[in-house]
Amino acid sequence: MPMDTMGKNELSIKPSVAFLAFPVLIALALAFVGYALLQSAPQSANTITVTASGSVTAVPAEAQLSIGLNSTGATAAEAVSRLSLAASALNTTLLPLLNGNVSDIQTQSYSVFVPPRCSNSSTYYGQANCIQANAPIYYVAQESLSITLPNVNNVTAALSGASLVSGVSISGVSARLSAQQQAGMMQQALSMALDNATSQAQAVADGAQVEVQSITVQNGYIFFSPASSLSALTSSAPSSQTFFPGTATVAKSVYVVFKAER
Questions:
Q1: How many CB atoms lie within 10 A of CB 79?
Q2: Which of 37, 53, 214, 257 has a CB 3.0–4.6 Å from the CB of 253, allowing a cystine?
Q3: What is the mean pLDDT of the chain?
Q4: How far apart are CA 57 and CA 262, in angstroms?
Q5: Which residues fall within 8 angstroms of residue 159, CB to CB, at 6 or more apart?
Q6: What is the mean pLDDT of residues 31-56?
Q7: Class in CATH terms, 64-170
Q8: What is the dihedral of CA 102, 103, 106, 111, to 10 degrees?
Q9: What pLDDT score was predicted for residue 226?
């Protein structure tokens, strides 16, 4: 009998010990993990945030010309043929200035149409292509071109040559940065912005060592100073016209977080 009682007691005691030991083990494990995380967590450091900018100015290397061609004919085929001759003459003039790269000449629009009959409103608004009353109809062929000159110094020669082609009108000229020039200036402006940010951080740190923690590059911009451009230049304009490209400024801004340590 005592043996049976003791056996029952043992059976009732063992589950109680296991039940109490389980939460103790969990508590110990959590305490260990918390201690490990505490030991591995980085210590907070003083930080300095700076917003700075840098800019680079240069003379644009390229120029953009907007040129129009206009021809007329008794038939659509005749108007198109005359327009093709004018375009060929323009290409012969400009291709040497484009290093033979015909892809620098791009057609923006092309149209062939019969002008409307002239009216008082047509005369009032200065409509060039209109047919007078009782006059036979004719056809007009028009093409608008965008031309990129790789060397801005050739603008005067391009304008002089183009103005001699029959049916040509030059509606605008503007200076522009080449892709290589823009990329280089953007990089220089960014480098200057980072240098300016570092100088500001060092001044605030009061002798402490500063180390870049993060950099956010903000949007840059390109500003062109006023340039001398020509508007509505026709074949009757003097060939002594000169284009002054002005300058272009590329700027970049950065937001930098520094860590300061003594």
A1: 22
A2: 53
A3: 79
A4: 38
A5: 65, 170, 173, 230, 233, 239, 241, 243
A6: 61
A7: alpha beta
A8: 60
A9: 65
Give the residue extent of every domain in the chain. Answer: 1-41, 46-58+181-227+245-261, 64-170
Residues 6+ apart with CB under 8 A from 109: 142, 143, 144
pLDDT for 127 = 52
d(C-alpha 106, C-alpha 91), whole Å: 11
Q: Which residue has the tokens 């003379």?
A: 59
Close Cβ partners of 5 (under 8 Å, ≥ 6 residues apart) = none
The pLDDT > 70 percentage for the chain reads 73
d(CA 157, CA 94): 9
Question: Rounded to whole angstroms, how far apart are CA atoms 166 and 186?
Answer: 42
For the segment 108-127, the average pLDDT, to the nearest whole number, is 75
The amino acid present at 130, given as its one-letter code, is: C
Give residue for tokens 């290409």: 91
Per-residue pLDDT at 121: 55
